[in-house]
Amino acid sequence: MKEQGTNTPLAVAVIAVSLLFLSSPETVSEATGRALSLCVSRVIPSVFPFSVLSSMFVAVGGARAVDRALSPVSRRLFGTERGASALFLGLLFGFPLGALTVGEEYRAGSLDRDEAARMLAFVCCASPTFPVYAVGVGCFGSAAVGLVIWAAQALISIMIGILLPKGSAVRAPLPKSETAHKGSALSLVTRAVTDGSRVILNVCGSVTFFSIASSVASEMIGKITDSIVPKLIISAVFEFSSGTSLAGAACEAGEIGRGAAVAIAAFSIGFAGLSVMFQTSSVCEGIPLLPYVCGKLITGLGTAAAAYFVSALPAFAPTFSGETGGAGHTFAPAGAAAFIAALLLLAVFYKKGCKNAKDRL
Fold it and tell me: 259 lies in a domain?
């Protein structure tokens, strides 16, 4: 009876979502088509090959080699000698390879449960390609906008890794040599392709489902208000690729100011959305996710605040606002104050909220 009572709210939520989907068949159909097209054109080409290579990289001991080389820096900054490879792959190749590498290292025994949870808080980043080209150039006509967004989320992620509570126990130093997974090259490739296929299936499934949920929720919101802002926020929270594209489209249509659109796109990339959150969960089974959730919330809000702050600087104002003069900088002090306050308050919240994360999830 206790178990049934615990699951009742979830069952009610599932029924409610199902009814919403059934009430909007056209929206569900259109959203499914857009999501699958997105998976074929962007997600699979940008994730699947690197997912396979990441799995192979860990299997042959590449991740451990990177960890050994960077262990002094990793130990000093992040409180762990293992997992630097996850940050490297996350920053370079983006979602969900940082989380995938943490999961691989955790299953291989290179990271313990607490170390893996702390690493998840800051290694899950967007690759430079998406913010710079898809968002900066594609949505706002400026690579500089995308570069600022990528750099902000990368720096804030690293700051979180430095500031988050460290484990009390210090693990033994990394051995000079560790045995990689045994097996022929053929078996390693086969296993990596199999693992990569499973990952991409989870990724595309998450992208599709949350794109549908976002579209249905936006349709419901549209019946309440004509404002575009709630729809953009919902899209940003549910699925980051849809959130950024809709923010850019709303800006181009004149439905929202350029600065606000950039901030929403920046939050969408920094937070990464529920879709990536569930992708992370699928490749990191057994690892507490509260540090990840707090870390991504901080990264999203901090990235949005940073983008707004930078947009108020004279050197970047024409690029971010599309203006040639100094107009639009009236709120520059407010932007600076918001940026600093957001980082300070969120750092305090994160440290207090995630200190005992292993007992929360």
Answer: yes
